[in-house]
Amino acid sequence: MVVCPTLEGYEGFMANHTWACKLLGVGELWIQECGSDDFKIAAISGGYIDVKDSIVLFTDAAEWPEAIDVERARQLKQDAEEWLRGDKGDANEIAMAKYAIEKAITRMSVAEGGMRRKK
Q: Whole-model pTM?
């Protein structure tokens, strides 16, 4: 099973799922291999998922929890928030700053076990 952030929200796909092709947003990717009770988790941003006879995910960026530098993510989030509080740029620059914040929050969440493991 694969659970991923699409542009319409989180969606899950299993073996023998109806064919689908969806654009991906920023968020947590959850993968459960056949026969396993546990999920693998990664922070992803952008790309698409192609579901046919198999599930193939193409993403602009993916990070496993052990590869995430939490301090760097916090600093990038803080920098983007400070930039937004200061002189505003054009609509594209504002969107990019918000995107950076969303990615940093996702990376920190994945490093801490993800949204499903938080109590």
A: 0.86
